[in-house]
Amino acid sequence: MKDRFNSIKEHFEREAVLFDQNFVRFAPHYKEAIEALVLALPFARGKKISVADLGCGTGNITRAVLEKYPHARVTCVDLSQQMIAMSKAKLKAYKNVEFCVADLRDFKFNRYDAVVSSLVMHHLEPADKKVFYRKIYNSLKKGGVFYNSDIIIGSSRHLQDISMEDWLKFLRKGCSSAEIRRTLKNHKREDRPANLMNELELFRAAGFRNIDVVCKWYYFSVYGGVK
Ligand SMILES: C[S@@+](CC[C@H](N)C(=O)[O-])C[C@H]1O[C@@H](n2cnc3c(N)ncnc32)[C@H](O)[C@@H]1O
């Protein structure tokens, strides 16, 4: 079987150009989640902070960060060259952004005030997250934060069923049957979403404090903590 990360990379290389156009039809609350994630950053508006955007995609999260913190120095990391190319084009007005095509699992972290990530962590193997979240924690300055927006599975069969039903209801509004079939197939093959309580426990084990859930809408949530 093909390595799961090769398949993830190929998927996003293929879909990068149409990502912005399509993704809002596939991910409920996408824009609200980005807004919530940026609002959660506790630094004064305009402060010159350093930020890493893990799995930056086409740069939507970094752009939202830069709207609040135009002087921020941001490192955008993504597995997909095409995604990074889209980010570069979107963020070309900003001189303080660096781009890195890399697998997060091998990425050499610098020091940051904030690490942000949207709809990426569910690609990691659950067993790798303990070490990975600790790595993020170690990369933060004291008072630094990690906020993550992600897919989250329900704590019980019933809650997972209603979460999935809510997502399907959203998909049916904007996608064709073929697109829904493809999305669910990719989801099954590529994604390893976690339970929110487990995620918060991993944050605690990594050392984070003030751990909190900023928002949760059925299958999607924004949560994080402070060093
Ligand atoms: C669903 S997209 C989200 C993009 C962006 N964060 C957003 O919310 O608009 C997931 C992104 O994560 C990237 N990705 C997945 N696994 C990765 C890994 N191991 N290392 C780096 N990037 C990864 C993909 O290439 C893709 O750009």
Mind explaining what this structure looks like?
The protein is α/β, with parallel strands linked by helices. It has one domain (4-226): Rossmann fold (3-Layer(aba) Sandwich), CATH 3.40.50. 48% of the residues lie in helices and 24% in strands. Strands 1, 2, 3, 4, 5, 6, 7 and 8 form an 8-stranded mixed β-sheet that branches. Strand 7 (209-217) and strand 8 form a beta hairpin. The longest helix is centred in the first third of the chain and has 23 residues, at 4-26. It starts with a helix and ends with a strand. 36% of the residues are buried. Bound molecules: S-adenosylmethionine. Residues 5, 8, 12, 55-57, 60-61, 77-80, 83, 103-105, 118-120, 123 line the site of S-adenosylmethionine.
